[in-house]
Amino acid sequence: MRKVACFLLLALILLSGCVQVPIQRTEAKDVKIELKVDTTNIQAGGKVGVSIIVENYADFEIRNITARIYGLPDWKGELEKIKNYSGILYPETGFEFNWQLTAPSDVKYKKYYQVFADVKYNAYNKKRVMITGISYDYYKRTGSGSGITSSSSLGGPIEIDFVPYQSQLIAYEDKLPFKFAVVISNKGRGKPCADYFSLNCSKEKLNKVLFNFTKETSGIEITCEKKGEVNLIKAGSYAHFDCIGNLTNVKEVSTQIIEFLVNYTYMETLTSPSIGVEPVLL
Fold first, then answer.
1. CATH class entry, domain 2-122+267-278
2. What is the pLDDT of residues 17-36, one digit of tens each?
């Protein structure tokens, strides 16, 4: 009885056209997307299974995943129809969309087709930056180090990095000025969009992300050249800008924390191997 129940549950999942499964992290901290077909050679009127597999190896959850397939004239099936997974894909979980397509039945000679797919999802990245300054007297007494460090990356296609301009932060008076560069880079195969709350990206939002920062401690003043929408120049590759500020009231050691956040919709286009369709020989 238990075996029958398990079989029925599996059948219901497969018929729904989408499956969420746990995965084991063997990849870098990334979101991996694959387009697969179950055969590359069929007869006219035959069926082909198409799947899009989304695997989340990053250290953040992704949301609102959509997928559509297209590019097969005269085929039958759910072509062009957008499939949607409205849940949350947590780290180390995967999700699969499935289609069953039927090739044209009136093929007169062997023809080759390719499946194209668009996949979109909402994601983010964030880093905590620790800015440690010390007074000159404390430095002379202890020789302690200071500077700017950050938490490790959460991964994903959009990265945040920091480049300090000062190797040491030593205060000769109560206020200690600092400066560092922020680099936001697209390391994935697709394009980001700053329209985080919609999956229909407008041309004006393409190759942009939403950037913001918050102070977690009170002993700091900071401004950045960019806030809100940030354009990733060179066809969506990277953005580079400066942040400047002061540590206030540095007596001996002052460690202040800022969290930087980037929100974005990410879009990838995929292409399948060629599928050969042969005429039926009578």
1. mainly beta
2. 555 555 555 557 899 999 99
